[in-house]
Amino acid sequence: MRDHKKLRAFELADQVVMEVYRTTRAFPQEELFGLTSQIRRAAVSTASNIVEGCARYSEADFLRFLDMSYGSSKEVEYQLSIAERLGYSHELAEVRTMCDETAKVLNGLIRSIRSPKD
């Protein structure tokens, strides 16, 4: 098993969760069970899937959870772009940049695990 706290991807995903919760507080009340909830769940899913993957014994399971985490990070990016276009917050560009960085690090980790070892 791996220690998720040692992974840069987890650190970034965890930071995204905290920023998503902070910025979505300003969203309209009518979005609480809509876009606000959806963005928060996808952000938490990004970090949680890294944690769960690290707790698995096989490398295949680890990769499967990293893949899900990557998908969730891209989902957060898209949902934040919707909120930004709707004018819900002016602070979302920074969080989207954080999501993009998280996805890049996850992609690099996935590729490094999948690449043939010498």
Which short descriptors sum up this protein?
118 residues, de novo design (two linked rop proteins), 74% helix, 0% strand, elongated
Short structural summary:
This protein has 118 residues and is mainly α. It contains 4 helices and no strands.
What does this structure look like?
There is one protein chain. The chain is 74% helix and 0% strand. It is mostly helical and 118 residues long. The protein has one domain: 23S rRNA-intervening sequence (de novo design (two linked rop proteins), Up-down Bundle), CATH 1.20.1440. The longest helix is centred in the middle third of the chain and has 27 residues, at 59-85. The two termini are 22 Å apart.
Q: Order of SSEs, N→C?
A: HHHH
C-alpha termini separation: 22 Å
Number of helices: 4
Class from secondary-structure proportions: mainly alpha
Strand share of the residues?
Answer: under 5%
**How much helix, percentage-wise, in residues?**
over 70%
CATH class: Mainly Alpha
Any idea what the CATH architecture is? Up-down Bundle
Largest sheet: none
* Strand element count: 0
Number of domains: 1
Q: Which geometry do the CA atoms define?
A: elongated
Q: What is the mean predicted local confidence, pLDDT?
A: 94
Low-confidence stretches: none
Remind me, CATH topology?
de novo design (two linked rop proteins)
Question: What is the name of the CATH superfamily?
Answer: 23S rRNA-intervening sequence
C-alpha-based Rg, rounded: 15 Å
